[in-house]
Structures are given as C-alpha cells and as structure tokens.
Amino acid sequence: MHSEPLNDRNVSEHSAYYYVDIEEYPTTGWDKFKQVVKRTFRGELFVGLWVVMREMIKFDIHTVKYPLEKLPIGPRYRAVHKLLRLWESGYERCIGCGLCEKICISDCIRMDTKIDENSRKEVTEYSINLGRCIFCGYCAEVCPELAIVHGQRYENGSEQRAHFVIKDDMLTPLDFLTSGQQAEYPGFGAITPNESVTKTPLAY
Amino acid sequence: MINFTINNQPVTALKGETILQVARKSGFYIPTMCYIEKTTPCASCRLCVVETDKTDGLILSCQTPPTQGLAVTIDSERLQTERTNIMRMYDVNHPLECGVCDKSGACDLQNKTLEFGISSQHFSAKEQNRKIEHWGLINYDPSLCILCEKCVHVCNEIIGDDAITLQFGGYKSAVIPKNSDVLDCTFCGECIAVCPVGALVSSKFQYSANAWELTQIPATCAHCSAGCSLTYEVRHTSNSLGAKPKIYRVTNNFEVATLCGAGRFGFDFDIQAAKDETLFEKAVLAFQNATAIRFSSLITNEEALILQRLKEKLGVKLFNEEARAYQSFMQAYSSISGKSAFSGSLDAIAQSDAIIVMGGRVSTDNPAVRYAMTTAARHNGAKIVYMHPLEDALLQNVVTQNIRYEAGSEEGVIAMLAQTLLEGCDVDDAIKAFLESLDEGYLCAESNVGDEEFAQISKSLRRAKRKTLIIGSDVLSHNRAVNIARLCALIETHTDFSLIVIPQTVNTVGVSLICDLDKDEKIANVVGYNAQGDFVIGSMGECAMTMPSLNSQEGTFVSINYQLLATNVAVAFEGHCLNDIAQALGLKALNTIDYTAQLPVEKGFKAVEFDMLGNFYGALGEDYRGYQLETMDSELEGALEEIDDLPEFNGTVIYQCNPVNQFNAYTARTSQLEADTSLRGSVQFATAARISDGESISIEGREGVRVFIVDETLKGTIALLPTYDTAFGGAHEGYRFEKIKLQRMGS
Known about the structure:
- The complex is a heterodimer of chains A (204) and B (747).
- Chain A is of the alpha+beta class.
- Chain A is built from seven helices and four strands.
- Chain A is elongated, with a radius of gyration of 30 Å.
- Chain B is of the alpha/beta class and 747 residues long.
- In chain B, the strands form nine sheets. Chain B has a five-stranded mixed beta sheet, with helices on both faces. In chain B, strands 15-14-21-22-23 form a five-stranded parallel beta sheet, with helices on one face. Chain B has a five-stranded parallel beta sheet with strand order 18-17-16-19-20, with helices on both faces.
- In chain B, β8 and β9 (174-177) form a beta hairpin.
- Classes of the chains: A alpha+beta (204), B alpha/beta (747).
- Chains A and B meet through α4, β2 and β3 of A and loops of B.
C-alpha cells in the first residue's frame, strides 16, 4: 500500500481515513442501565475464558514459570559481580592493582591490600556497594587479570543492601572451581569454547 | 655570566651552572632519569645527552658547564634515537608488575617509557632470579632497580650515612649495604624518596595503597626545630576498620628538601577523642581557677598566642622552661648583636666551607643540621670542628676536628673560642680588655681543651670564606647561658661567622617570640598543656582531656631559620581544641587560624592570613613556604660578664640525649620507629658505675627501669640517657649533663 493516501489526514473519499462507527453514548439513566445489562449478559467473558481453557487442555504453554524457570541471559549481561579464581592453582585472580576502584564512575568499589608473607600483594578486602553501582561494566573491562566479571545473577532481593557485595560472596568458592562450575566470562579475552583449553585466559 | 644558545635561543648561565640547569631554568626540556638537583650529577642514565657545535660526540648536559658562545642542540633526531635506545635498555626484563607496584602512577620509568613510546622489548637477556632484600623499614627489589644511583648519592652526599653502595657487575649490578650484610643506617628513608622506580620501598607501606588513591596534605614536620616540609598522604582505611581516614605514608620534595626518618616514618601519632561536654566544662573551670598554665613547645604559634591572650585576660602565669631558656639566650644575644635573630640558617650551613659545632648533639637533636653539614663537607669540602664532651659516631665521616671539652665548661670553651676567632679583628677596647683578661691556663685546664687545639682551629679555618657557628641546645639550659649568648653574639658581630642556635622542640622559637613566660615554680592549680599540671590537657601522656596532636592541627611554626611555616590537618580530630576553651573563656576567634594574622608584628611576624601562606617548593627549588620573619633591631645594652668558675661533673654522669629518629612522646608512640629506651654507655662508664651490659637499673629521682647497654661507639665516662619516652617527651628543661645515682634492680 502506498503511503500517499495516509498523508492526507482529512477524512474524504480519497483519503484512507474514515470515522469509526461509534454508537451514541447513552444520555438518560434508563439507556445507561440498558447498556450495562446488555454488556453483562452478552457472554463475551466466556470467549476469553475459552481461550485459557483450550490452551490449558493443550499443555502447550509459553509462559516462563519464573522462579522455577529462567530465561537464558545474554553472555554480556551485566549483573552482580563475581571474582574469579585461577583454574590451575585455585588462587585468586585479583592482584589488587586498584584499577577497578579508580575507574569506577560511581565510586562504589573499595579494596584493601597488604603485603603477604611471600612478599606478594594480597587483597584483604573487596567490596562493591550495589546501592551505588550502576552496572556500567567498566570494572570488568579494565581488569587486567579478568578477575572481576559481571555474573548472571540479577536477583538482588534481600533484607539488606550490603548483601552480595563483600569479597566472600563474590569470589568463586573453591569447591565450585574444582567441580568446574566457575563460569568463564565470555567477553573480551575469554576462553575459547574448546574442551582442551583449561588454562586461565589472559587479556594480553 | 656565560652567554650561549640552546636550540638557537640565547640563554645565560651563571658561573658553576651546568647546561641542564640553564636549560631547565630557561624552560627547555631535557629528559633525565638519574638527575637530582641536590647532589652532584650521578651521570648514569645518559638521557640528558645534547649536541654542541664544538664537540663531535654527544655530551652529558647534567655535568657539563657551558662555554661562551656554545651552540647547544637538545632535540635532534640523533639525540632522540640515542635516548629511545637507552629507554629500550632500561625496559629489558623490567618486571611487568606495574599492577601491584607501589610506584605505579608515579613512576619515572613508566612515564619515560610512555614518553618514548617503547611498546615492546627489542633486546633480550637471560632472566635473573633475584631475591627481594628486607632491610627493616626498607625493602629492596633488585629486579626493579634501574641502577640510577640516586639513592647512593643522597645517602653519601646529603645524609652522610654512606650506608649503601653499588655492586658493579654489569647486568648483575645491584645496590648493596656498604661494608655490611644488612643495612646499618639511620633509616632516614631518603633512598626510598629518590628511587624513581619501585625498587626501594617502605616495607610498612608496600602494597597497602596506590599512589593515586592518596590525598596529599602539605604540612610541616612536628618533631624537631628544623621544620622540614613534608606531605602527609592520607586515604580511607578498609571497611572493617570503619573506613576512617588514616595517614598511609609521608613523602617529601626530595629534589630540594631532605627529610629524616622520624619525619618519614613517625607519622602515626594522631590521637582521637569525641566531644565530651562535662569534661569540657571541667577544663574551662580549671582554666578559670588556674594560677598558671604550663605548656610544652609542641604547640602552634596560634595556640601559643591563645595562651598569651589567656594570660592577659585571666592573669595567669605561663610556664615553659625550655622556651624561656631560649628566650633569655636570645635576649642576651640581642643585647650584644643589636638584632633579634641570628644570621645563620640551614642553607647557610649547607653552603659553608667552615663549620664549628658547639654544645649539642646535633645529629640526633636536629638531623636537618646534620644533613646540611654533610652537604657542606661533601660539596664544599668544608672543615668541620665538632666541640662536645662526647664524640658523635654519626658525624665521624664529616668532622675534621673533634674537640672534647669537659661537661659544664661551655662558658670557658666559648670564651676561648671567641679569643681565637677574634684574633686580629678590629674590636673596641672593652672587648679587647675582656679577651686579654681571660685566664687561659685555668680555662684550658678545666675545660680540658689545649691551646694547640684552638690554634689548629684558627689554622684550618684561615682560608674559609663562608663560616658558620652552630650552637646546640646544651648551652641554652646552662647556668651561664646568658654570658655564653653574649660571647656567641660577639663572635657573630666581629667575625665573618654566621650563627645558628638549635633549640630542641618544633616551636621553641615561636613560643619564645609570642609568649611572655614566667619562671616555673611549684604552685597549686596549674593547668598543663602537654606538660605536668594539676589538670592536664593534651595529646600525650596521661591527660584529663584529649586535645588534637600536631598532625591534626592547622597552624604555623617558626623554624630555626626564623621562617614561619604552615602545617595542615592530616587526620581530623573530633573533640574539643584549645580554641574552644578560649572561646568559652571569652576570647573571640572562630578558628584557631584566625590568630595567624594577629601574631606580634613587633617580633617580626607579618599580618598575613593563614590561608595566604604558601607551603610548597617551586619547580626550580624556590622556597614558597610561609614567610621569613623580619629581623628587628634591639638596643646594644649588654656587657660581657667575667667568666665564672667552671663547674665539674664527676662520678656517674649522664647526657640527656635521644636515640636516632626519636624526639618526643609523639615519635615514641609511632609504630615504625625503633623505640630504644636503654641507657647507653662506654665500657669505661660501665666500669666506673659498676654495672654490666644488659643490667636493669633505675635512676634516683626518675621513674622507670632502664636497661644498660654497652655501646662500643662511645668513649669516655658519660652515658646517654633517652628522654623521649618519659611522660611528656622530656624536653630538656634543665642542663643536659647531669650527675646521677644509679641503682641496680634486684640487688
């Protein structure tokens, strides 16, 4: 269909526009009463109910049963952060360089480091204030070790804001790692989907 | 004046300036890695190469003075290639650990690597397995070291410890402790400051914060009277500690200034208190009922002025024996010299070629003086005469003549010194008569300094052009301090010596200028401010009410250079301060710093608001800190007194003297500084006092038990007694030599 008839917005023979046939609104009380009775007992309600009934019997339901069932999420979805571990040794990937803390535009990352007994930098505290986090993903982008990543967990319902955001909550538990449940960040520098590659990916 | 050109632009050099110095002064950029303004050129990086029309090869601009008419090119293609290659060499096998390195973000190597665009390694060498060295407060990672030698140069030329050296071995070269397996030095940490990479780092700071996370607060060191410039670097702590601000480290402008270990590592003496209204009312009441206020010189000028105003308003007396001693010394000095302040300064010491130190253990009392003396010795070949009853091992590298006089005989010694130095000077008859009337035989015999030693002084200083006489704090508390001051003034007035007097505490000079002090007496109802009293307020010792420490205060100090220096709040204090009490007592100033502009103009202060005071050094080392106090004229009314009989100190004698990097109750409670509280004496002292190494002793009339340690570096029969660890930091109120009775514990 050409768009020209639509351009002329005046209702006429040549245009595509016409007045919808709308009944006159009831004006008297009696007319209004008649309209209510007519609409109530016309049985249109059962048209909708029949559709529900029919689909129920067919057992072909497309609704996601949310708490039991979840939609798959795009690999780049940016939900609550996770701190990953090295596949080989199980050590934390985070070296405490502080770049995420620096780049964070809502200033919600705070970390604390110290020198450990092997003269290496140890991250003693790491927290993200989710009350301020805008989930921009800069922290994951800047991380040179692919240590801080955005996970897929978007359910932040809790009694307290502070939940989910301390280091112990974010860090992959060791048993998760050994059982291979640490999901690799599928973004930049990510592990190639190949069974033989088991090493920790590096950005450089 | 030498005229030459840099990149065809005409420039002028003063005599002794190098091409690099002229280039920087005139705004030309020549990259360097190893250059440091305050030492002689290290000449190790070779980045500062330039081309000239008179030489074929490239020359090092850092160590070459220009000649008349020279045409220097500083940025040709050849130079760029040369410099890029040098940077490539620096980056060979430099560990890629910028992510964790303390220096990252403030690293010369990082900056220059980016500047020259070195993005890959063009050469390779076998990776070496090198161990990180742990030297107490300092960690050294040889694999990060670029061997610029800055640390070695400052340690040797400025500090005088001469504790580190370069172990030559080509690719295997490293910085090692000199003549020792472990680092044995005064831990000034200047090597950490000058290190352009993260090779030398503070072990307590390492890996605790990144350079860019720290807020820099320019301040003035509160530990000794030098008033060194330092920067407190503050950051929040971790969440589990409440995320409160904390001082992480102290840095300094190492290009022009130097800082000792107490300044660099003794920063965590801040104290915290909440506002307590009942206690506050009690404090106000105590001030109202007070007959006197006793206070220490660990105080800002502004608070000293508040105390002076309180004195005027409430009619109380002000006690501060240490500042009063300095005040009366300077009064006596002025009565002969006719001016309110002496002519010397730390810069003057550093530029001297002859220095006489008398009456004070300057190396630990005031490390800045020691560094200035070392600089003079290394750069000008200065002759340094050290006159003191105890030799100082820390100065043995720089002192050319050691003179040991008997404790207590300072008046005799300074009189003999005056006689020596004034020889041949044009002085009036009264002075001539005074000098001739000296009983040399008696003075020499009693002070145990021979004629020949004075003769040697006059012989070795004959050729010197810039001379400085340094007077230590022993004489300030001497019974005859007033006459000693007059003799010092005499030397300064009639010879070409400049004089500098070294008091003990950070603001002794300021307090002596601002406060009208009374003679201390034991009376009731004394309010103590960081000092003994019936009601004690303060930030050290046991206080009824806690006040902010000096790193939580805004205010100013007056240094020994008679320079007013500002200090700022590093860590905020929550409780009440002296100004709150003063407000309750009727003084009207909203903030303590409102008093800065009200400091007495007749004493040389200027009516400058606190916020207008600078606190930094310029790019070429210009001093923009505070202002120089004006030297006022005073009446020439003083007359020399006859030399009194010299006192004798026999038996068990101690000298009140703090160990390295310890000054007061603040340094005593910091976490990094070594807290040595032992009584140290020579073997001779141990024999005389009949005590042996490691024995616990107590001293009659003093609290506490001390361990006696035999110190091989000491000679003679005088032991060193630390005072910094006593209740209020033990500023030396009496004469520093004292005859004591020792008691062995458990016998």
